[in-house]
Amino acid sequence: MRETILQALEQVYSNLVHMVAEFLPRFLVMLIIIAIGLLVAFIFKQMLRALLGLTKIDRVSEEAGASRFLRMAHLPAMSELLSRSIFWVTWLCFVLVGLSVLGVAGLQEQISRLFRFLPEIFVAIVILFLGAVIANFLSRTALLAAVNAGVRSARILSWSIRFVIWILAITMALEELGVARQTVVAAFSIVFGAAMLGLAIAFGLGGQDLARRSLERHLGDTKTENDKEPQPL
Amino acid sequence: MNVGEVDLLVGVSSRDAADTITHALGAIEQSFQQYFVRQRVVIVVVGSGDKDKRDGILEAASSAPSTRNPRQPGITSLRTIHRVTADFSSPPPPGVALRTVLAAADLLRARACAVLPPAANLSPSAVANLLKPAYHENFDFVAPLYKRHKFQGLLARNLLYPMSRAVFGCSIRELYSDEWGFSGRLASLCLNQDVWQEEAIRARPEAWMAISAIASDLRCCQTYLGEKSQPPTVAGSDIVEVLRQTVGNLFWCLEGNQSLWLDSQRSQEVPTFGPAHELTSETTELDPHRMFEMFRSGVTELEPILTVVLDPDTLVEIKNIVALPEGQFRFRPDLWVRTVYDFASSYHHAVINRAHLVQAFAPFYRGMTNSFLIEHSDSSPAEMEAASEMLCAEFELQKPYLRERWKANVEVKS
Q: Is there a contact between B235 and A140 if contact means CB atoms under 8 Å apart?
């Protein structure tokens, strides 16, 4: 009996030593991969930061209105955001590769699924970012044009444009991620169609005079007296 | 046809002016026959379209009765008046047309040149007035001066002239005009600059040319041309385009010539040939109320943009005057100057898209115009001139503010 227990303990100890002996090198390899990843990610970050500094992307981002969104979200400037992103993405890839070296059952499957999903997440983020930039630019363009044409409630028009573009961008991003694809497309169609119908009815009923004046101004031979201002030059 | 070297060169753009180009060419030729009998001259017509048709116009212009001097029928030029056409597949923008004229002037070694519009009321004396200072007095840039209605040219009077005078130290009243004269030396200098692809230059190159002359210590002057031919009023929607071409262009010139004004103080006397200014005061169909309403609604609706563009103190004061009843509203000169300087520095720092920034300025121009129309409804030319001088002094006084804002490391607010 005592003999059997000792043998079992010896077996367990031997297995443990064997497992540790097998695991430790893999763990060390993982740490080395993560450390190298840290170094590579840092180099990438510095290189990208220098490159973006040369291309003056911060000024472009400022002009396009993207920086305003970043500030509202308490995010850093565009060049800093992109260089930090490349750092984390690069390092995350190395960490995942390192973890896969451990050979933990089930983990490898999850990691490979995550790797397959990464491009879609990246594309979704890019879609949202471009949506934000375009929505901001076009809504501001509409706001200024409406204000300078003397249109009342110019800000509502501007917000409507921003809202529609945001909805479109979010729908596209969710579709890219494959989240409830059918539902999202159907919901977007309903929301967008309802908004357009609402605007058409509102303009048709409430804006008859505005539409008539607008058409007279653009198609008529004479300009209304209200449009006359002193010659600026 | 071999033209050879010339003394005088006149460039005319035939763009959108098939009906008036004949008269303009006739007036130019008459000017040569009357005032520059012995000089070697050439007319460069820049345009697009049917070359045969334009050649026909040129032929007709040279033989038309209007080209003969009716008062002095015996006078004709002792030299051949050469005519050169420069054809483009589509109408060239003003900057491209000017570059063509400058290239011709450089090639033909012209001593004095002028760029003219194909206007129906172009007179031979006006052509001569632009060419004479450059040819006889060795001036390098000759700006025009006009007789016009007292409420015409308010953008030039309230912004372009006082600001360019304060910043560049050169009191050219009509920095933005369709006609001006220049020397062959300035033509060569401008031709060799690498700016011709810039949108600001393609749209309105004249102010940049004047500032190039100032920057190179060349001599500038102004000359009286008579009445400016344009209706006293303009459609409201065109104001934004005019602002883009002039105010946006001036801000662009400020940025491109920082070394000229940012850390130095220079002043150049600009001699004037003829009357300095002549104002008429016929009744016009203006609607100050509409302008005030557009100013008020503009400031209200554009507040998110103005928060980024204007200094917080300026914005507070703007909101205060917007809240006033229309009868009590006045755009004070000091506030107007600060607003303009805030826009200029925000343009420099590109706090928002620059085209948007200039568009956002339109309500302020309308507010200032309303204030000006009310304030000077009964003013005499002398009183208006005194007010203009006071505004120029205000622009000068607040120049340190512009420098400070320009140099500031702007932390843009969301």
A: no
CA B144 to chain CA centroid, Å, is 9
Confidence of residue A152 (pLDDT cuts 50, 70, 90): confident
* A170 and A100 within one domain: no
Q: What is the pLDDT of residues A54-98, one digit of tens each?
A: 877 777 777 666 776 676 666 678 888 888 888 988 898 888 888
Does the model's pTM come out above 0.80? no
Asked if the C-beta of B172 comes within 8 angstroms of chain A's C-beta atoms, the answer is no
Please work out, in degrees rounded to the nearest 5, the angle formed at the alpha carbon of residue A62 by the alpha carbons of A60 and A66: 100
Does residue A80 sit in the same domain as residue A133?
A: no
State the CATH number of the domain containing residue A140: 1.10.287
Q: How far is B105 from chain A (nearest CA, A)?
A: 28
| CB contact (8 A) between residue A140 and residue B291 | no
In chain A the beta strands, taken as DSSP E runs, fall at 228-230
Q: CB A231 to CB B232 under 8 A?
A: yes
A49 and A1 share one domain: yes
Chain-chain contact of B305 with A147 (C-beta, under 8 angstroms): no
Any chain A CB within 8 A of the CB of B241? Answer: no
List all residues 6 or more positions away from A174 whose beta carbon is below 8 Å from its beta carbon.
Answer: A124, A180, A181, A184
Domain termination site, one of A75, A104, A133: A104
Judge contact between B164 and B394, C-beta under 8 A.
no
Which tokens sit at B248?
């946006």
B230 CB contacts (<8 Å, ≥6 apart)? A231, B152
**Which residues are bridge partners to B221 per DSSP?**
B142
Q: Which residues, numbered 188 to 227 in chain A, qualify as contacts with chain B under a Cβ-Cβ cut-off of 8 Å?
A: 223, 225-227
Size of interface A-B (CB pairs under 8 A): 123
Domain interval for residue A9: 1-104
Tens of pLDDT, residue by residue over B85-104, are: 888 888 888 899 999 999 99
| Domain closes at, from A69, A104, A139 | A104
